[in-house]
Design goal:
- With about 120 residues, the protein is mainly α.
- The protein folds into two domains: about 60 residues, no CATH class; about 55 residues, no CATH class.
- It has five helices and two strands.
- The chain has a two-stranded antiparallel ribbon.
- Strand 1 and strand 2 form a beta hairpin.
- The termini are far apart.
């Protein structure tokens, strides 16, 4: 089965439609953009960006640096009621869950220690 080529007129129409789809999407890039932009040579980053395209200061994202206070990624099953409650509080809901659990641990260290000792006695250790 042979395939029919697109006509020159249709090809021109398709190219015009493609170009018009991108009109207005590329912002004007002035000297400020290039002064604060990331510079790369191949895969090597020579200078990191200092601002975003909108001119706002660049904030780093992602996992915090490793160290004594580094958090550990862990999969955890929570009830839908708990998730709905914390998600309704807006962005940062996972950090708020961590704060609640951390407060509980700090307030209940003695109780946790007692439960652990009870378990050891039960196991006969």
């Amino acid at each position: 089965m042979s395939r029919k080529d697109i006509s020159a007129k249709s090809r021109a129409d398709a190219e015009a439609a493609r170009r018009s789809a991108f009109e207005g999407e590329v912002p004007d890039l002035g000297p400020e953009f290039f002064r604060t932009a990331q510079i790369r040579i191949g895969e090597k980053v020579v200078r990191e960006a200092t601002t975003t395209l909108t001119g706002r200061p660049f904030k780093s994202r992602g996992r915090p640096p490793l160290g004594r206070s580094a958090k550990v990624q862990q999969s955890l099953r929570l009830s839908p009621e708990v998730l709905d409650y914390f998600r309704a509080t807006g962005p940062g809901w996972q950090a708020r869950i961590d704060e609640v659990l951390l407060r509980h641990v700090r307030e209940g260290r003695e109780e946790v220690r007692r439960v652990a000792e009870d378990r050891e006695e039960y196991r006969g250790e």
